[in-house]
Amino acid sequence: MNNAWMRVLEVTLSSQKHKKSLTFGTNWKRGKDDLNISITGNKYMSMLKDSFTIKISNLTYSEVIQIISGEFYDVEIRCGYRHGNIQTIFNGGVLYITNSVNSAHTNTIIILCASKVVARFGQSRMNLTLNSGINMYSALKFICKRAGINTANISNALTKTFVQETINVNDTLPQWIEKLTDANKTFIPNADSSVNANNILSIFDAQRTNARVFKIDTNNISMQTGYPRLTSDGLTITLLPTQAFMCGDVIQIDNSLLNISVRSQSEMSKNYAKYFDDKGCYMIYQMQYNLTNRSSEFSVEITGKSRSLVSSFMGVK
Question: In terms of residue numbers, what domain contains 151?
Answer without folding.
Answer: 121-205
